[in-house]
Amino acid sequence: MVAVALVGLGDIGLGAHLPALLRSPDVRLVAVADPVAAHREAVTPLVGDGVTVGASLDDALAAAPDGVVLATPPWATPELAIAALRAGRFVLAEKPVATSVAAASVYTGLTAAERARLQIGLTYRHDPAIGRLKTWIDDGVLGGPLLVRAHIYDERRDAADPAHLARMRRTLEHGMPVVHEGAHVFDWLAHLLGPGGLVVDDAWALRTDTDLPAPNLTGARLHHPAGHRVLAEFGWLTDALPRCELTFLGPRGLATLDGVTFALRLATAAGEETVEFPGERVPRDFDLQLARFAALVRGEVAAPDPDLAAGLAALALAEQVATLAMDGVTT
């Protein structure tokens, strides 16, 4: 079994990465670490004896893991990822890989061998729904070109949960929702639509509350060299939110991806069908991601997937949208 340490015990670390690590038949959890004492106290009864509970990456590395999972905020991830890679470990790093392209420039100092040990946590790329969508697109089931609508709305404002609001406000201090959510969506679209890359045509942003540190609603129009058009919206922190989903409309069909469950609906002239996959989306995809990481550590696959290049490309596109949107921001 692959020995793995988890660094970062916030919502995503404690709620998604840790359960996947504890479920996995491929890995053995040897250490967890977080600088916040309350996070360490919360995790201690969950991991049991024999797992090091520390405050830092150095504490985690002292347990001699083969790999390190970084469930850390993007402003902390680059330094930690580089340190773990240079210590000879494999790294699975949460997206986005940094808060900006400029902040991500530190990754250019990595060697080819170090980059080959870095998998990016674009978790939902691993979902079978994305694979099925790609098959439909590649096989021409929808025809083309496609009109893609991506409506990514989550993180509803809940007055009964002030801790969540405070956490999301801190996240907004480091960029609009598109910077954080766009990493996933733009990676999916790059994977689904094929070579050439998306180009941003224009963008907008809206701050619905003047005391928020950044606009909480963002959108953009983009195009793809194959002729596809994309309309993307990202939103947080309103009392109610629109439906979260992606639609792919072509001359021969419409595919709809539920943004919460990842259930798929396909409508064509031949009729309609719904495709659902076993289990809940989050544990399913974190399990698949971790299995892929374990295979990388064991040398069963030749390269990380998604790799650093994919993470940087998604970040760069999200930053372009954010930059254009701020030019005409509405308050």
From TrEMBL:
SUPFAM superfamilies: Glyceraldehyde-3-phosphate dehydrogenase-like, C-terminal domain, NAD(P)-binding Rossmann-fold domains. This is Predicted dehydrogenase. It comes from Jiangella alkaliphila. GO terms for molecular function: nucleotide binding. Residues 3-119 form the Gfo/Idh/MocA-like oxidoreductase N-terminal domain. Pfam families: GFO_IDH_MocA.
